[in-house]
Amino acid sequence: MLMTRSYNGLHHRFQARLSRMLSPDELGAFILVLANSLQDEVLRKSLAPRLREVFQAFLVKREIGVLTGAPDDLAVFERLAEQGIAGYGCWRIRQLGPWGCAWNPLRALRPARSSTEAFGGLEQPFDDQRFHFDKPFLKPEIFSEERFRGRFIRMLFQKFPFVGYHLLLLPDAAGHRPQRLDASSHELAWVLVASMAGKIPGFGAAFNSLGAGASVNHLHFHGFVQPGVFAVERVDWRHHGGDKAYPLPVARYVDVKEAWRAIDALHAENQPYNLLYRPGVCYVVQRAPQSERTLPEWMETAGWQEVCGGFSLSDRTMFDSLTAHDIEQGLALLRP
């Protein structure tokens, strides 16, 4: 069983796993559960009482000087201790023309890691001394570990999610492979998404190359459930045969091997890219390397979600004032 056999089953498993993770001894897990609980009202209400209880326990530990955790988690908790958690509500959604926007204030606390670093090429050696997804302290954050098509896939909760049921999918996580896509992993993602089509409507996967929003140099995909379409999936764009030009170069492939040839050609050119996998389809989006363009303040990051037309904002004023024209101009800045 990979994840679950139905949407309701996924929701139940997701909620139950989050609930079991809550402990006054696991600071990182507390932050993860808080962030994930805000994606819908059902999750928030079911987890809120225990979250408040565990938060108070951590405040007591902080007060007496015995609070422990990873450096990133301690830094995040300092912000939470100052602000409290009562003010964090569920994500708020706006649709601006084809573009989707969410107000997700907790995302402001996430570590940037390498997603803001200068582009040094599509292939960088794996560095065991830096943050990666096989660190022992991440074990409580594992959603599942299963075999699929002969590959061992570890699924981690996304600590600061920005799409529904957001999971990090790591093929052969213990192999410590860098974030450079290969043909077999591309085909694995393609087949995985296709296999979920009849079980979990809206399931998809995505990939950030280095230089394109990948925050960790450890081979991984993003899994999610998005019942509606991202802007890039709308049929009126030219890559769908329509008459409107998308702000960024996009190619749509319905053959897994043809898609791989296009991706491999980008590798040869050292061209950063983002991928979106839907059942039987792969969108390949070329973009400028991160940090080489000055982006507007509201575009806090630029990974696969942004280039596909979805935006998470942590500032409420920016969320309320953003326009479709702002988004089109912001995406145009990423043209390679």
Description:
By secondary structure, the protein is of the alpha+beta class. It folds into two domains: 1-90, no CATH class; 91-332, ATP adenylyltransferase (HIT family, subunit A). It has helices at 7-21, 27-37, 41-64, 71-83, 183-196, 256-269, 304-307, 316-321, 324-332, and strands at 92-96, 99-103, 142-148, 151-157, 167-171, 203-208, 221-225, 250-253, 273-278, 281-286, 310-313. The strands form two sheets. It has an eight-stranded antiparallel beta sheet with strand order 3-4-5-7-6-9-10-8. Strand 1 (92-96) and strand 2 form a beta hairpin. Helix 1 packs antiparallel against helix 2 (27-37) and helix 5 (183-196) crosses helix 6. It is globular, with a radius of gyration of 19 Å. The model has no long low-confidence stretch (mean pLDDT 93).
Features:
336 residues; alpha+beta; HIT family, subunit A; 2 domains; 11 strands
- The poorly predicted ranges are none
Distance between the termini: 41 Å
- Helical element count? 9
Total beta strand runs: 11
Taking the sheet with the most strands, its summary is: 8 strands, antiparallel
Shape: globular
The total tally of domains equals 2
CATH class of the largest domain: Alpha Beta
The average pLDDT score comes to: 93
Rg from alpha-carbon coordinates: 19 Å
CATH architecture of the largest domain: 2-Layer Sandwich
Q: Looking at this structure, what is the CATH superfamily of the largest domain?
A: ATP adenylyltransferase
The share of residues in helices is 25-40%
Order of helices and strands: HHHHEEEEEHEEEHEEHEHH
Lateral arrangement of strands in the main beta sheet: 3-4-5-7-6-9-10-8
Strand proportion, as a percent range, falls in 15-25%
